[in-house]
Amino acid sequence: MMRRALSIVTMMLAVALFGSAAHAIDPLPFKDRAEEVRFQNLARQLRCLVCQNQDLADSDADLAKDLRMQVFEMMRAGKSDVEIKDFLVARYNDFVLYDPPLKPGTYLLWFTPFALVAIGAVAVLRILRRRARAAVGEALARGVPIDNRDDDW
Question: Fewer CB within a 10 Å sphere, N or C end of the chain?
Answer without folding.
Answer: C
